[in-house]
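Help!! Second protein's tokens look totally different from the first
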Amino acid sequence: MAKFVEISTEGIFSRTFRNEKGNTDLCKPTGRELRESQDPADWWVEYEDTLGGLHYGR
């Protein structure tokens, strides 16, 4: 069962993702993490692009 957890963004760097227009965008961490299981390999940091799109990565 997936759930969101509030996390500190301290020490989490911005990452590059493609936005909905197809351009690369430097995305900032939102402070939320998607946890799909108890295994840390299934935990994904949420990032937001400049258009408001959400992306997930480590």
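Here's the second one for comparison:
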Amino acid sequence: MLRTPCLALLLATTLAQADLVEANRDATVPPTRDFWLHANGRWNQANPIPADRAVYNSFAWQDDLIKKDLLAINADLLVKKDANGDQRRLADFWRSALGFEQGPTELPVGLRGVLAKLDEAKTPQALLDAAAELYAEGTGSFLGVFASQDKKDETKVALYLWQTGLSLPERAFYFSDEPATKRVRDAFPAHVAKMLGFLGYDAERAQKAGAAVLAFEVKLAEVSLPMVQLRNPDAHYHPMTWAEIDALTPGLRWEAATRRAGAPAVDRVIVGQPDFLRALARLLAETPAADVRDYLRFQAIAGYASVLNATTAKAAFEFEGIVLTGAKRQRSLEERALKMQDGALGDLLGKEYVARRFSPVQRERFRLVCENVRTAFAARIRKLEWMDADTQAWALRKLAAIKLRVGYPDKFRGYEGVEIRAEGLAQNLVNVSKWSRARTFARVGGSPEREEWGMRPYTVNAYYSPMNNEIVMPAAILAVPTYDGELLDDAVLYGFIACTIGHELTHGFDDSGRRFGPTGRLEQGWSPPTEKGFRDRCDLIVAQYDKEEPLPGIRVNGKLTLGENIADLGGVEIALDAFRTTEAYRSGRLIAGQTPLQRFFLAHAFAFAGNIRDETLRNRLLSDTHSPMPQRINVVLRNVDAFHEAFGTKPGDGMWLDPKERVKIW
């Protein structure tokens, strides 16, 4: 997943309509010292972080432009007299979202029913069953059950059990002694107490419960694997029968619990982390039942506080926004409403967006760009010295099989049967959640739905799916609403779009994606010598990023970010090769005094222009698989020979890296 904006950001109205590559550049910073700052310095200075944001970057800027389109769509649907069923669902949901702040401090009826009898849960099994019933009503906890494609049989959907249950972004938050991270942990019990106050806890009881919930989650974190250890899909595939699972967890019967959660009857389950289930059984037996009940009540209210009314939403923001991200004030009601609508009915909204903003002609144009990048990638694979012939043949088969999903899906998800009312936002969200889970659970044992996307057409992002072996490039990352054609020279086009495409294609061959074959099945397609050559190069990348220290005392986690770092580097190298086939590159024509190669790199760097608050940067360093913005440019480009040729770096420059130390993978 790239998390980068589309070409439209080159059209920022705050900048002169001349040449945007030049307009965003800070000439006072030499490109050989800090290329990210050189390329983006003027944009960063002109776009400080708004008070209601934790980050403001080119991604957020483009998203703001798209929100104007989505707001206009909703305004039109509110008055549309001949609206169809799905359009009425969108309009009614929008009404409920705009009016929720005046609602009661009251959970949806199903959740209230589960909580009303929660005091009866006094044994580990009863607590697991209660967690299952809350799950069925849209509340998460330590029960992680879901349906997904079987990683070793791509023709089937399987039932999975997975570790879950932590409220803070990553397990490191429960143990780190770094001062700012510790402040987040120290603030958590008060947040729990405030949430439980909405359920009728008095101050003393709420305070005790806050401490108990933190203590329980610390123990849960101790038995949860860190994110970096979850990157190997082979290590988290354990097909088991219910009897085998129950034998791991004395005192617990999982089949009955998952049925309460809404899962179907099956004979076989894929367990991601058996040790987590074993430890959870022990934890439920050792922890006072009252503490676990406090935890479950907190999960229920915290999951819906932001959508009950203005008071509960403000209380949720005080921790989730201010403490965790550093934001100074809440987003506007309309912005929050759009976020909720996206999560609930995003495919319907996407269908309306595409009808207005992305034509079939645009779709075909960018599909051809995708094919050009794939061709360049294939040529690079054929030249890899560290990959033997058999593995090359396997990699080329996989690359050729990757499906290119561009713009919007051929078939949008329908929402027939979902009850949406003009009042009761929280209940609307529960209704969508229950409908969606029932829909996915119904596929267990059958074939996966391969035509549905995991992103909306208006999402400014892209992704690679290893189990579908596909890249998805939504319309928003490709559409150019209005522009001066002179600005879209091929260097700009390839610096933005081709690097994005190359990034996503490379994910199919990163440290995790490479383990899946052409059909999406988890398989071993690499020879041992090739695998060793790949790992040796990966170790060099890890070492480079491990040296980066964006905040005092907190370094980039090279292992956690490895997949994205591989994709960043591969995306640039592949896009460069594709760009070299263009007339713009061959001609060498200068634009704004810049060579084609220089413009390519400057345009690519714009994807990562932006500013971020320290609180959010800290969270991302601990939990995000992406490196921070400057590192995604500077560390990558130090390894690219063409960059050094384009800007004439030399030993001693901040961007210099000795040729012997430059890493080449894809």
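Reply: Different proteins will give different token patterns, so don't panic. The domain at 109-305+313-330 is CATH 1.10.1380.10 (Neutral endopeptidase; domain 2).
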